[in-house]
Amino acid sequence: MPLKKGKKKSGGKRKKSGKKKLTKAEREKEKLEKATELLVSNEDSFDSFVDRMDRWLTSNTHKAIELFRKCDVDGDGVLTYDEFKAGMIDLEAPCSSVELHALAKNIDKDQDGTIDYLEFSKGLRYTEHTYKRPLLVTTRVESQPCSVCKVSLWQPSVVHRPTYIKLHLRLTTFDNLRSYPGHFTVKVNSHISIYGIIEIIKEEMHLSSTNIKVFRGKVRDVCNLLEADDTLESLGYLGGTKNEPEDLTLYYDYTTDFHNCPVLLTDHYFIK
Length: 272
Hints:
single chain, alpha+beta, 4-stranded mixed sheet, two-stranded antiparallel sheet, 6 helices, 29% helix, elongated
């Protein structure tokens, strides 16, 4: 029976989709990349992993380099990701396939798919500052400039993948006392300035004094005095991970400001 006008014959072939179907290997690679991005986005978890692998590689450096040299056919000190992963598996490295892929990408500073295995002697802490993004990023605030000076405002510096310091602050006058309210410990970023530490001391000790000085050592002299503009990082304290911060002890002292206090200024002797 002939078909009516306007109707199409059923049972014809479906039009092929323009999207290329991925192979099994490509699907697995895509899945691995997504899992790696998820791992790296969790900074606390990833920092803990990097710290664990740093300790493992430091204690197995010579064995790892010796094995990788056998895999390095060209002898140029460079491996592909697959060669690196195979070597780490042979070494029974304590990490999963996702962690191993994240480690390979993190060590690959140039992101060209190759790894300089001779860098292992430096450990892995240096990689925390080289992963994809710059250490400090400053962005302009979208706001109206000041009506008086016409200067626009800026946001504070944003620190990606910061390092941490467990800072022990001790009041020099009572340093001989093991336990004293003026001695306390805080965890800070290594980019904090001495001025920032002074503000922490003010808040912790409820001080209104502006004459607070921070010293590198117990002796309160010019050699040990730290400038307010200095940061802990610029002073050589690079910090560690959040779970294992670098230990640092600094000392501080202050003088109290008195204004119009008749008792403390002994004016009461002259008041009738």
